[in-house]
Design a protein that fits this description.
It is a single chain. Helices cover about 50% and strands about 15% of the residues. It is built from 6 helices and 5 strands.
Amino acid sequence: MKKSILSAIVGFVLGIIFLGGVVFLAAPGLMITEDISPLNYEDTVGAIQESAVELGWKVPKTYQLDASVVEAGYDVLPATVIELCHPDHAGKVLSEDAARVVTSLMPCRIAVYETSDGSVIISRMNSGLVSKVFGGTVTEVMSRASAENEVILSAVLP
């Protein structure tokens, strides 16, 4: 009896360790979504900005990350982060104290960067998945915003 209980406990612990390892290895691929753009770097950035505005989103700021680090003496490939904000979505989150916990994730961001092989990558957080942890208004708003961001990107991605 003691032997079977000990075996069950060891099996359970090993199962937890294995599952933790799988989650650890899979998490980056689930948290960040990346696609290869069929357009060049500049056209990709421009098309995303234009599509966002056409769909009622604001583009409050665009960061040229490569320019910042080139000034510090680094030789890097182009990398831009585009901020996207939809006032209705932001208003719902900011109107509720419990939902404001995700303020540090606002506004939505889409990154465009070039790789050493010349590919142009569009990268963004899978905010629809991340939102499920919070529930309530956060899940509702972030899931909707995530889906709308994919519509914005449909102007670029096939």
